[in-house]
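Practice problem: Patatin family protein
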Amino acid sequence: MERYGLVLEGGGTRGVYTAGVLDAFLEYSIEVPYVIGVSIGAYNGAAYVAKQKQRNYKVYRSYANDPRFIDYKRIFRGKSIMDSKFIFDHVNSEKYPFDYKKFFKSSQSFVSVSTDCNTGGPAYFEKSKYTLKDVDNIIRSSCSLPFMTDIVEYKNKKYLDGGIADSIPIRKAILDGNQKLIVILTHPKGFEEKQGWYSKVSSVWYKEYPKLTESLKNRYLHYNESLQLLEVLEMTGKAYIIRPKHKEMSMIEQDVEELDKYYDLGWKQGIEEAERIKSFMQDMAV
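Answer key — structure tokens:
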């Protein structure tokens, strides 16, 4: 049997689309044996591995406007706009508990991607190599958006969002032995990343981490290269891509109705694609 994997990109609150697709996968009992996620893709992927349908959707809806999570006024107090630690300390343990036991008991491999601030390169954390007490810090580091959240320290190293160094980790998935991939993107077809405003301020904002600032400046190039590789994999039958058909949403969306629409879009597309995904997986087994 050919080994196959599921690749999940980030995208801030656009990840609610991915949550919808993955909930459809759970509804149709589609279990991909290898899962790798970046940023909010890692957060969604972990819930998928733990088989917690609609759990992340509820988190998106409940905290989109909660000042304990996001508050632009904090910047005037010298603090980060988003408090990701609140999500992991409060939400994961109290409001919408994450099922750590199911996560670790699952036979699915799970890899989350962070960016090492000192090297500017990707750090890959495999579920089989860490323990329950490490989960929150590892996945939080993958989700820590630059300029918006604090740097995360873990085992004497400092990390930020995995999307800086490896936005669509298809190469890592292939290196790990997956010959065919199911990839969930959060932008419609035809999207091309542009050099962001952050390229001009990163060297000042993160002056202590010159290699990190270099990765931030070149992120758009690496992202577009990954998209080009993905097109080749799709044309050769080695990748099955699911992406929003029409709608585009901002990275930080606080309109709950918009979040509902984007989740519903993912859910409906996941349902529509379910049988084709199953066929794609069966073809791999031939």
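Discussion: Residues 256-285 form the longest helix (30 residues). Students who identified this feature from the tokens alone can consider the problem solved.
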